[in-house]
């Protein structure tokens, strides 16, 4: 196992904002250059960390910022729901390019014949990088910590079959609150934190730090929010 020498990122991230700089599909920002511009803008605005998807994009972002970068690769489970870094090769590639932390799907869904906690156990043994377990429930979070996850993020609440009903309900602050009370590793609040007030509420709920993406780095989606609000018409 290779040993990744690094300063632990937890103090630098504490109480701060991590901006998720991702772009997909026909987004005009869907390139290493595009997301790197977002990362630079985020750091200028005071972001203490960046979350980044994809090997080429993450490699580029790492050359542009000095704050800790949380790297991940996205794929899909058979039912079409999102899987966050589900292969050992992917974890290794992100760790070797010096991501401070690698985000891994910590849900109980099976990838490479392992569920999230078992996969994290394998990653900690065979790769040895810092792991952020992306989870959707308290039980998943506790199982990932027992498996060796270095921190948790509520990323997947609302995006797994059993939590899909929460998607329309705004950020899952109840999950942040419960995890923060139960585990001894940093808990990051992530997912649908679309306003500064949401971010502050997540800190109040016990989040170590807050991750925001869409509301900062998905301008097409933000535009749609405005357009839909206007289509609802004027109040009677
Ligand atoms: C579910 C999933 O695929 N989440 C992804 C995880 O990396 C990203 O698409 C999100 O943008 C990120 O989690 C930040 O969340 P929000 O964009 O809601 O602020």
Automatic annotation (TrEMBL):
InterPro entries assigned: Aldolase_TIM, NanE, RibuloseP-bd_barrel
Name of the top EC class for this enzyme: isomerase
A Pfam family of this chain: NanE
Annotated catalysed reactions: an N-acyl-D-glucosamine 6-phosphate = an N-acyl-D-mannosamine 6-phosphate
Pathway assigned to this chain's UniProt record: Amino-sugar metabolism; N-acetylneuraminate degradation; D-fructose 6-phosphate from N-acetylneuraminate: step 3/5
One GO term describing the cellular component: cytosol
Keywords: Carbohydrate metabolism, Isomerase
Annotated GO biological process: N-acetylmannosamine catabolic process; N-acetylneuraminate catabolic process
Coiled-coil regions listed in the entry: none
Lipoprotein listed as a keyword: no
Entry EC number(s): 5.1.3.9
Molecular function in Gene Ontology: N-acylglucosamine-6-phosphate 2-epimerase activity
Annotated function: Converts N-acetylmannosamine-6-phosphate (ManNAc-6-P) to N-acetylglucosamine-6-phosphate (GlcNAc-6-P).
PANTHER family associated with the record: N-ACETYLMANNOSAMINE-6-PHOSPHATE 2-EPIMERASE-RELATED
Protein name per UniProt: N-acylglucosamine-6-phosphate 2-epimerase
Species assigned in the record: Hymenobacter psychrotolerans DSM 18569
């Amino acid at each position: 196992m290779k040993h990744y020498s690094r300063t632990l990122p937890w103090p630098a991230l504490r109480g701060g904002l991590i901006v998720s700089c991702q772009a997909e599909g026909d987004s005009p920002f869907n390139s290493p250059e595009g997301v790197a511009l977002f990362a630079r803008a985020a750091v200028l605005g005071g972001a203490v960390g960046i979350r980044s998807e994809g090997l080429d994009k993450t490699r580029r972002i790492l050359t542009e910022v000095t704050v800790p970068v949380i790297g991940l690769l996205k794929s899909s489970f058979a039912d079409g729901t999102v899987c966050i870094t589900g292969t050992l090769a992917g974890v290794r590639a992100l760790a070797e390019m010096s991501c401070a932390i690698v985000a891994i799907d910590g849900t109980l869904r099976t990838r490479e014949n392992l569920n999230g906690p078992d996969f994290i156990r394998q990653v900690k043994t065979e790769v040895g990088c810092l792991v952020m377990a992306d989870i959707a429930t308290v039980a998943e979070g506790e199982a990932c910590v027992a498996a060796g996850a270095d921190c948790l993020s509520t990323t997947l609440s609302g995006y797994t079959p059993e939590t899909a009903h929460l998607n329309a309900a705004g950020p899952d602050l109840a999950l942040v609150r419960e995890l923060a009370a139960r585990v001894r590793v940093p808990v990051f609040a992530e997912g649908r934190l679309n306003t500064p007030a949401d971010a502050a509420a997540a800190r109040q709920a016990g989040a170590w730090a807050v991750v925001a993406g869409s509301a900062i780095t998905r301008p097409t989606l933000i535009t749609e929010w405005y357009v839909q609000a206007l289509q609802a018409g004027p109040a009677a």
